[in-house]
């Protein structure tokens, strides 16, 4: 039975508009859902649009696991200008006319940014250094370096190249790209590093996240649509879409609801498994270790 004053349990797949923070979206969903227990899986910058996965009530416990899933982005990279934020919202710090940079050179450098790479995150990020957000240090004028981190770019595809002229008169080259990558990849950093490798600088001028794990923009709702009719993807359906499924019997369901370990299902997924009881109730997320299924989050009992 739901407690009085709580919202529905489930995910909301939002198509975030430009100009609002992820926290701003969470605030809107809190009001619509009638609960403060709302969170998100992976932020989007105010400039970015697209898929933002929001958890309501018990579904917030899924978010930490969903943050580890792969993501897809559509972006526009401008070659010829460097900015302090690695995107169009920051001050331009250098301009170099793009002359004689051909598709072959671009593809060669993109190949080096594909696969398992070490990436230095953008300084204007939420990464903490000694307990202080990196972007706060930038705003305060601090000079610092972030360490490189491993990430995986599954594919980095250029669809179109457009020659144009920037506001300061610099001849620049805009690339429309699609990036499939692991969680923790900074698309702004890819733009920065591609431009640096080509000797002309680069930054991001547009970013749209089209997929987070199994949730894509085609199934997302705008804030306007949610204002008209608020609904969630039920927690069981959300878990079944995102994780391998394991159906168990009544006795095992009873034991799992108390937090007990079960004999491994032998699924060997290397990650969380969504467990369902005989009545289709979503029970828990488990991970297989040493022949046992260990609960990592229990949603009943």
Automatic annotation (TrEMBL):
It is an enzyme of class 5 (isomerase). SUPFAM superfamilies: Pseudouridine synthase, PUA domain-like. GO terms for biological process: mRNA pseudouridine synthesis; tRNA pseudouridine synthesis. Residues 30-187 form the Pseudouridine synthase II N-terminal domain. Keywords: Isomerase, tRNA processing. Its EC number is 5.4.99.25. Residues 188-229 form the tRNA pseudouridylate synthase B C-terminal domain. Residues 243-299 form the tRNA pseudouridine synthase II TruB subfamily 2 C-terminal domain. PANTHER family: PSEUDOURIDYLATE SYNTHASE TRUB1, TRNA-PSEUDOURIDINE SYNTHASE. HAMAP family: TruB_bact (MF_01080). This is tRNA pseudouridine synthase B. It comes from Kitasatospora acidiphila.
């Amino acid at each position: 039975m739901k407690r009085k004053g709580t919202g529905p349990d489930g995910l909301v797949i939002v198509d975030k508009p430009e100009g609002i923070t992820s926290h701003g979206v969470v605030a809107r969903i809190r009001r619509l859902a009638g609960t403060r227990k709302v969170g998100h899986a992976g932020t989007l910058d105010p400039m970015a649009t697209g898929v933002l996965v929001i958890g309501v009530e018990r579904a917030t416990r899924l978010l930490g696991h969903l943050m580890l899933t792969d993501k897809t982005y559509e972006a526009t990279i401008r070659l010829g200008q460097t900015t302090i934020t690695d995107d169009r919202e920051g001050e331009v710090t250098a301009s170099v006319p793009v002359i004689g940079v051909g598709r072959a050179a671009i593809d060669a450098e993109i190949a080096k940014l594909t696969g398992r790479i070490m990436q230095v995150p953008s300084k204007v990020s939420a990464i903490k250094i000694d307990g202080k957000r990196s972007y706060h240090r930038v705003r305060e004028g601090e000079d610092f370096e972030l360490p490189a981190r491993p990430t995986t770019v599954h594919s980095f595809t250029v669809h179109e190249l457009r020659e144009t002229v920037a506001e300061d008169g610099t001849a620049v080259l805009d690339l429309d790209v699609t990036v499939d990558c692991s969680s923790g990849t900074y698309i702004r950093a890819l733009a920065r590093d591609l431009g640096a490798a080509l000797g002309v600088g680069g930054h991001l001028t547009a970013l749209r996240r089209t997929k987070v794990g199994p949730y894509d923009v085609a199934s997302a709702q705008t804030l306007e649509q949610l204002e008209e009719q608020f609904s969630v993807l039920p927690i069981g359906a959300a878990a079944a879409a995102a994780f391998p499924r394991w159906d168990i019997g009544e006795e095992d369901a009873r034991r799992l609801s108390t937090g007990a370990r079960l004999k491994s299902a032998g699924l060997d997924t290397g990650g969380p498994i969504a467990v369902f009881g005989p009545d289709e109730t979503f029970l828990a997320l488990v991970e297989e270790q040493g022949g046992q299924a260990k609960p990592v989050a229990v949603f009943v009992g």
